[in-house]
Amino acid sequence: MGRYVFKLPDVGEGMAEAEISRWHVAAGDRIEEDQPLVDVTTDKAIVEIPAPASGIVVSIHGAAGDKVPVGSELVIIETGAETRPESPAAAAPAAAAPTAVAPARPPGHALASPAVRQRARELGVELRAIRGSGPEGRVTHADLDASFTGGAVEGRQAKDAIEEHRVVGVRRKIAERVQEAKRRIPHFSYIEEVDVTALEELRLQLNEAHAGRRPKLTLLPFLMRALALALPQHPEINARFDDDKGVIHRHAAVHIGIATHTPNGLMVPVVRHADARDLWDCAAEAARLAGLAREGRATREELSGSTITITSLGALGGVASTPVINYPEVAIVGVNRITERPVARGGQVVVRKMMNLSSSFDHRVVDGWNAAEFVQKLKRFLEQPATLFI
Question: pLDDT higher for 2 or 239?
C-alpha cells in the first residue's frame, strides 16, 4: 500500500491559483484513474481535473468556493487498498445516529425533502409553520398545497426569509471582471438606429437558397463582416489597452469575442481572424464556440484574445443598452431587438425593420468623434448590405 499526494497542477498559462468549483468525490470513496476528481475555475473557464491514480480517497482539501494556490495539496489517495476504510459517518458512536422514530421535532426544525424545501423557499413559506403529514412528521408537497387553504398551517408567518448564496465559480469571475472593467475604464456609450430591412431580406434569401447545405445565417455574421471592414479604418478601436504599462496594442487581425449566456454564466468565446472568414464560416465558428461554451468544454485559448466584443440578447435585446467593455479591450458593440415600426422615407411614412446598435467605448483611448464615425460606418454597411461584399 502507498499514499499518493496529489497537488493542484497549473491548469493554464501559469495561473497562480484556481477556485474549487465542485468535488466529484469525497473521503472514503473508491476511485479509478482518470475518473472526474474535481472541477476548478480559472479566469476563463471551468476545468475538470481527473484522478491521477486508482485507490481510496483518504482526504480532500478545500471546499467549493475556496481559492487554492497551484502546487498546494489537493487530495490524498491510498493506492493498492483492497478494502474501503470505514467512513466517518459509520465510525461515529451509535448513540449519535438518529433514532428510527422521531415523535417530536426539535424546535425550529422541519423534516422535508430537498425538493419540498426548494419549493417552500420559492413560495416564501416557513416549513416550521406547517404540520407535516408524512412519516416522522415530514412535510410533503400536499402539505404545502394545503397551507394555502389553511388546512395544515399552525401559524402562517410573513414572507421574511432571506436566502444566502455564495458567489463562487464563473459567477465570481464574471463579477470580478465586470467590476475591474468599470473601475478602470471610463465608459461612454453611443446608440444609433439602423434600418435592417434590406439586410433581413438578403439574409432570408441566402438561408432559403442554401438550406441544408450551409449554416443558417443570423444577423451576427453580417455584423462580424461589417466590423472586419470598418476596423482597419479605425485601428484605435481594434485594440487592447494595458493601462498598467500605459501601452495600447493595436491589432491588425480582427478577433471578435461573442458574449454568450451559459448555465455557468456569461462567457466570451473568440472567433479568431474574422477578417479572413466569409459569412458562413463566421456563422459556423460562432455556433461551434457558443456550443462548447454552453457545455463547459471551451478551452482557455478559445476564450481568450479577443480584440473587440459583440453582445446581444436576441429577442430580449430591448430598445437600447449600455454594455460593459470586455477589459482590456476598448470597445463593445451591442445588438438590440429588431422591430417593425413606421418611419419617414422620401416624404412618406413606411413600415421598416429597425434596430439599435448600442456601443460602449473606453474614453481614454477612443474619442467621441471617432466612435461616432465608426458606428456610422457600421450603419452604412448594414443598411446597404451589398457593400459588405464589394
Answer: 239
